[in-house]
Amino acid sequence: MYKSEQLAQHLKQLIENKTWKAHEKLPSLRQQVERSGFSLITVMNAYQELEAQGLIYSKEKSGYFVAENQHDSAEKHVAINHKIEINSIVFKYLKSIQSEQIIPLGSAFPNSQLLYSAKLIQTLGQLAKQRRSYEQTPSLPPGNYELRKIIAQRYAMQGIPTDPSDIVITSGGLDALNLSLQAMTQSGDYILLQQTLFYGAWQAAERLGLKVITIPEHPVDGIDLEAFEQAILNYPIKVCLMMLNSQNPIGFTVSDEIKLRLAKILHRHQIHLIEDDVYEELYYGNKKPLSMKYFDQQNLILHCSSFSKTLGAGFRVGWVYAGKYSENIQHIQLMSTLSVNSFIQNALVEYLSHRHYEKHLKTLRSTLQRLKKQYFNYLNTHLPTQCTVDYYPSGYFLWIELPEYLDSTLIYQRLLEKKISVAPNILFNATMQNKNHIRINCSFEINTRIQTALEHLIEDLQQQIDLHLEQHE
Ligand SMILES: Cc1ncc(COP(=O)(O)O)c(C=O)c1O
């Protein structure tokens, strides 16, 4: 830690302990130099750091003053969870919606009709006849060299210089997240998650016995950077795990400006981030959103992704850009899954070496865009006025906010009796702070089956709202 950071942390504690109250003057720079024994430049840097965090403010020719309640306002949004228990909830939920009879509005997977590209299936068929394509040895950790080379080239195309040795092929994105988290933590460590986040992250925390600090979503920026920095300053966080692009379940993509600011905070405090970017290819515009990895100058970010949302989760192929953590991750992999299916890796090399993937992605993106817009227009028109649905231009999820008095778990249970699935809050927030949201999968054409399911959902919400209003008149 730099001296200025040490001093800033010390002063911050004094502010927190109310040694100085709001709007009280801090010792002048010169006084602080005398008191602390640090140089003027160190003291200036510390004061500027506190100012950047909004803890103090400066007045021309008067000096520095303590800001009002800045700390308290961010701190109250940061939550600590010592024991995570979500796995059995997720397990029961996934079992309950597995049958083909259930209308999959609650599914996390994109409609399989849009994936499993015909060219890839053809490649698989051709390779299946070649004995050498099954050999496992070339695919042992860190995975097929050619596949890693292609993935490295794709990073380079986005301005992220990458060597194949930075990449470890994993059994899907979830394996990439789990391996990364396991490599970076020990039981009892603190990690930081977004308050509402893909259940796999919470399950990994539960499995590894980690304590979770959460920060709330920011209504405009997606990430509350103030709360983020407060959490980092207040807890010994080992690593953060977040989604910045097409966030699951909410759907937002964080702007480049906020990503850059986030990267600066990570660098300032030397905090690692595991970036879950499995929806990175499902953007709608002309330009692919940058990953956080792009802004990483110091190899603090492990970038996890997979082919599950673009080619099919059934292939179970993902990867982590692990950089210097590659070796460590491979050790864990050797002890657990050994390696990813070599046959599939070979087929992906063949498929990705041509332009097939780009063409497939183009069609996939435009189909998802069309469908999501249709679902949004329908829901926005027909949902009770007390409900809101935001439209974010990527991916295939819509996140519906219900009135606070409605419990989305009960809605999920009632609809399941009608063989309709929706994904309730409880799956994405082990702290169960909010219960009034549901996630809808929009990757299925709106045929009569889906239309009926949406009508049932709307009807159920309207009935519950009417009931509540009646009881509270
Ligand atoms: C945000 C997020 N991360 C990771 C995964 C897991 O991806 P994979 O199927 O590649 O393991 C999912 C799957 O739903 C997801 O939504």
UniProtKB/TrEMBL annotation:
Listed PROSITE patterns: HTH_GNTR (PS50949)
Pfam families reported in the protein's UniProt record: Aminotran_1_2, GntR
Keywords: Aminotransferase, DNA-binding, Pyridoxal phosphate, Transcription, Transcription regulation, Transferase
Coiled-coil ranges (or none): none
Domain HTH gntR-type residue range list: 1-69
The keyword Cell division belongs to this UniProt entry's keyword annotation: no
GO MF, one example: DNA-binding transcription factor activity
Annotated family: In the C-terminal section; belongs to the class-I pyridoxal-phosphate-dependent aminotransferase family.
Protein name, as recorded: PLP-dependent aminotransferase family protein
Lineage of producing organism: Bacteria, Pseudomonadati, Pseudomonadota, Gammaproteobacteria, Moraxellales
